Amino acid sequence: MVQNNPYRPIETKVLDVITETPTIKTVQLRPKEEIAFKTGQFIELTVPGFGEAPFTPSSRPWIKDMMEVTVMKVGKVTEKIHELKKGDTVGLRGPFGNGYPLETFIGKEVLIVGGGCGFAPIRSLMYEFFNRSNDFKKLFFRGGCKTPKDFLYKNETAEWVRRDDINVVLTVDEGDGSWKGKVGLVTTILDGIDMDYKSGYAIVCGPPIMMKFATGKLLSMGFRDENIYLSMERNMSCGIGKCGHCRIGPYYVCKDGPVFQYSTIKLFPDIWD
Amino acid sequence: MQFITVNNLHALLKNLGKDYEVFVPVKRGQNLIYKRYRAESDQGGFSPDIPVIGEVRAFDPLKAFFSRARERVADGFSADLPRTLPKPLCIVGAKACDLKGFKVQDFVFMEGDFKDPFYIRAREENIVIAADCTCAIDTCFCLAVGVNPYPTEGFDINLSEVSSGFIVEPGSDKGRTIVEKYSGLFGEASDAHMSERDRRRKKVAAEVKNGIQKIGVPSQDQFEGIIQSNFDSEIWKEEAESCVECGACNTVCPTCHCFLLYDQKDKGAMERLRVWDSCMIKDFALVAAGVNPRPSLWMRLRNRFEKKFDFFPKLANVYACTGCGRCVSACPAKIDIRKVLQRLVKDGAKQPV
Fold first, then answer.
1. Cβ of B83 under 8 Å from any chain A Cβ?
2. A149, A124 in Cβ contact below 8 A?
3. What's this model's pTM, rounded to 2 decimal places?
4. What fold is seen in the domain A102-265?
5. Which residues 175-204 in chain B show a CB within 8 A of chain A?
6. What DSSP character marks residue B47?
7. What is the ipTM of this complex?
8. Mutation test of the interface with chain B: which of A243, A251, A267, choosing the one with the most B Cβ atoms within 10 A?
9. Does position B147 have pLDDT exceeding 60, yes or no?
10. Are residues B153 and B60 part of one domain?
11. B124 plus B232 within the same structural domain
């Protein structure tokens, strides 16, 4: 009997490695077996012999034989990922978790708020939105980074600004000579958005501290708890709701998330840590 | 119900040794630990350990034979399931508290969209020959968490010690098959045997009850809401003060299941291990970027109790404590789950949920 082994990684070729910023690279991957994922789901990327780490793919979900993950160098495994070269072999497991509930947003006004590395899942989400942008009433994106050098996907974000099916404002915490846009935290560019906050939806993805303040701001603007969707970051190891590391209250982030409505998790004390 | 003499039980274990790796509890100092069953003296002339079928639970939790402390779960990218043991296991002398652990472990590893094929294989292939407790020790509190000191479910065969042998109760098809296969070793249990079993069971239950009363362990009927109502209590800080973060409580607990996937290179190829982990250790929930949802020891202690007395009752309809008392005896800081529960129930009752 062939038994499915959820711990086994699928052999995967590195097609290309793109340097996004001094600390962030995007790795283009071709798994030997096709992997279909929903935008917002995550995968575990194995560097053989060194370990694996969870990432939300940043690429087009409907492309099954190629996947991109964008990786910030923060630890042991991500350091090894940054050393990868075209032609190297890695492993993939997944996809895991729920992903973004796209159907919920149909016919609605949707505000996407992103910060730093949070642009990675958002890029994948943007591909889905742009693919069928007529399905949504209005789309807004408010994104921020530390400095202009820290923007991911510079060419693509520049293209988002030019599109007429989404309203985009970008900001940086600290400008430089070249930066012509807004300066300030992402929370400072959330005012005055031409949408009905009470019936609108918000999707927030970024570092925990940014998610905390952005959510607070959205609530004060009038967004409903249940209409705010957060991408939670936890220490997902198994990805299948067994190893216990990513539990929040009665939920496992790997299985019941990583995308949660704020109303679901707001009562748990440590969601922003 | 069948009956087996001590000599015939040895013959049975010897026979089972052909198909299974047989483990029995043997005495080491004050504790019982599991050792491979040997029928004869070894080459050095040392006589075999005497299996202790009765008494109380061994030091090693039964889970160690099902989700083992360290198990190879992937060889590189190979689709074949690694097999690390030559034969399935036969575990003898498991007690009722350990069998309750299966309710939690089965829920974790066998339910949901993804299942653990290694645990499932062990559950399918291994056999459990359980046994009644024949005494209680001062850490036993099974009756407080809904467990009798004698197995009523979750075994393949149960042995109840009576004078001159054991009453044999098959509890599964696997157990019945074994009893049929070796039918020559069994006789019929008499009415006298059965009433002796009842007498002995009552005696041990009374011992456990005495221990519970002496310490004042609350019953699980009083556990509902104790985590929420005490969430911001000082209890956690006070109880965690002496904790040395060794993780022994997790290791010996029959319901603790958390693990880490650990990759290493083996002769150039990759192997992935599933290794027991401990939620009391600082890095347990640490995220790569450096964020730690539970940086303080008291938060981790609270988290451990939340998992057992809030998470599992909500999701699997079971309090994830079996009353085995292993964590009480293993803790070098003398943190006593019975006393923590007592405080939670007492303080929780003061402030309505």
1. no
2. no
3. 0.94
4. Rossmann fold (3.40.50)
5. none
6. P
7. 0.92
8. A243
9. yes
10. yes
11. no
